[in-house]
Amino acid sequence: MRLAVGSDERTHLTDFVVEELKNRGFELELYGPLNEEDIQWTDVAHKVAESVMEGLCEQGILFCWTGTGVSIAANKVPGIRAALCADAQTAEGARKWNDANVLALSLRSTSETVAKEILDAWFNASPEEEEKININKVSEIERKYSR
């Protein structure tokens, strides 16, 4: 699987997650300081989300200080369902019930141990069939306001 990964700053956590993803066999497209680009959180979120929307990557992972900004910005891109996850249970639910395709993490509050648990939950969960009606309703809301 190809993943778009971006952050507005490079930290010990971003390096840990990138190495963890590589060790799991993912192919990565890096954005922001992870790829020597000096860009703002809004721009990195836009690039990652657009990469997923266009099908260049199947999913994305974003970081910023709280994770909130990148999740808000990414969710402005059509078809993106970014979820800010602070724990494994939230990550699992975001995949199962919301078919989230972009994971947002906080640089401030996510430890390496918790990040690994979140990644495990994110990649081991799949969208539940019975939730497709709600996922489709989210897409309908998006279309209603994009005219």
Overview of the structural elements:
By secondary structure, the protein is of the alpha/beta class. The protein has one domain: Sugar-phosphate isomerase, RpiB/LacA/LacB (Ribose 5-phosphate Isomerase B, Chain: A, 3-Layer(aba) Sandwich), CATH 3.40.1400.10. Helix 1 links the parallel strand 1 and strand 2.
Principal-axis shape equals: globular
Poorly predicted sequence stretches spanning 5 or more consecutive residues: none
Into how many domains do the coordinates divide?
1
Percent of residues in helical segments? 40-55%
Largest sheet geometry: 5 strands, parallel
Q: Separation of termini?
A: 33 Å
The CATH C-level name is Alpha Beta
- The overall pLDDT average reads 97
- DSSP strand count: 5
SSE string, helices as H and strands as E: EHEHEHEHEHH
Give the number of helices: 6
CATH topology: Ribose 5-phosphate Isomerase B, Chain: A
Residues in β-strands, percent: 15-25%
Structure class: alpha/beta
Order of strands across the biggest sheet?
A: 2-1-3-5-4
Radius of gyration: 14 Å
CATH-level-2 architecture: 3-Layer(aba) Sandwich
Looking at this structure, what is the CATH superfamily? Sugar-phosphate isomerase, RpiB/LacA/LacB
